[in-house]
Amino acid sequence: MTDPLLRHADNGRVKTRPYDNANPLLWCRHVLSARVHTKKYPLRRGGEYGIITLMNILYIIIPCYNEESALELTMGVLLEKLHSLVGAGRVSPDSRVLLIDDGSSDRTWEIIENLAATDAVCGLKLSRNRGTQNALSCGYDYARRYADIAVSTDADLQDDPNAIDLMLREFENGADIVYGVRNRRDVDSLGKRASAVLFYKFMRALGSESAYNHSDYRLLSRRAMDALAEYTERDMFIRDVTPLLGFKSAVVQYERGARNAGTSKYNFAKLAKLALDGMCSASLRPVRLIAIGGIAMIAVAVLTVIVSFFIGLAAREPISGSTLVIATIWFVGGIITAGVGVVGEYAGRAFMEAKRRPRFHIETEIGLPEKKRYED
User: Fold this and answer.
1) Residues 188 and 306 in one domain
2) What is the CATH number of the domain that holds 202?
3) Which of 157, 176, 249, 279 could disulfide-pair with 224, CB 3.0 to 4.6 Å?
4) Do 154 and 70 fall within a single domain?
């Protein structure tokens, strides 16, 4: 049988491929304003070539770390959303949910195996915990071989799945990158809201172009995923890298909900590392600011000496400045120590990048199609 999702571009009718003589004419769903993958196939044996349209394959990428309490509930909602998109003709029936187990120590992988055996689910198990950003990189790297578009989200279901419909609309209108942006943070604590505001403003001050109130809920086209795969840094901060791809982008706002189950896996140490990754990934501005601060400190020191000299000359007596000298020594020492620390962080990251170690290893994969849609 001919795939019912194939249609001839001229009149919306399906023509059989050369090896399919049954049902030479079928109707398929008419998709308005859709960005589609097109190929040339013979319309009949020895016949002229025409354009055949294939529906876009969507992969929903979810990194998972010790999510046994939330994963099944999350998957129930996301699979219902995926099936509704397939039923409405928005995406191909070959669309799937791709789960990446980031070295979980609970039953997360067992749940993924059970889901992959019964529904449109595939999974990747990393050999050890490598962090959310590396797990996402792994997901994008695999999705670009099988799918035309990918949407990444978290396993806690705080990101509204209905925003995927809006993301697909922006993609159909020509956007290669669609950012999911929270329009409010009512479910977050006061401390988390305040730290988030400071973080985004700090990143903007460092030259980051990342979208405000955007985490990892985004849509990427295959072209964007291919471009992202060319960025190979070990500590990549994806939300800061995606604007650098330069493709047309759009923003979809949604209301962020509370976790459906379990607790957040981001403690203070992990949040601090994420902020540090973002700072070092954004630009070299911190190093330059330290250099400018050092020059300013030298200028202030020289000016202080000159002013003290003239004041002492006018008063005809030396000015006692032991307290000022001690405070200045401590202040300058602190500036130097902080500067050496920041420069050392950049040097350490350059050292790790020079080793060119892989960011992750795949221990097991399950449920992936046997044939890739696109070759590397």
Assistant:
1) no
2) 3.90.550.10
3) 176
4) yes
pLDDT of res. 376: 67
Q: How far apart are CA 375 and CA 189, in angstroms?
A: 45
- Would you say 44 and 55 are in contact if contact means Cβ atoms under 8 Å apart? no
Which one, of 109, 100, 160, 152, lies nearest residue 131 by Cα? 100
CA dist 34 and 317 (Å) reads: 84
Please answer whether residues 137 and 242 qualify as being in contact, where contact means their C-beta atoms are separated by less than 8 angstroms: no
Place of tokens 């990446």: 100
Question: pTM, whole model, 2 decimals?
Answer: 0.68
- How far is 150 from 61, CA to CA, in rounded Å? 7
Token readout for 19 is: 């090896």
Output the CA angle 81-84-89, nearest 5 degrees.
Answer: 130
Query: Which of 325, 237, 226 lies closest to 283 in space, CA to CA?
Result: 237
Report which of 140, 143, 153, 145 is spatially closest to residue 64, judged by C-alpha positions. Answer: 153
pLDDT digits (tens, 9 = 90+) for 191-203: 666 666 676 666 6
- Residues 248/172, Cβ–Cβ less than 8 Å: no
Q: Distance (Å, rounded) from C-alpha 53 to C-alpha 7?
A: 6
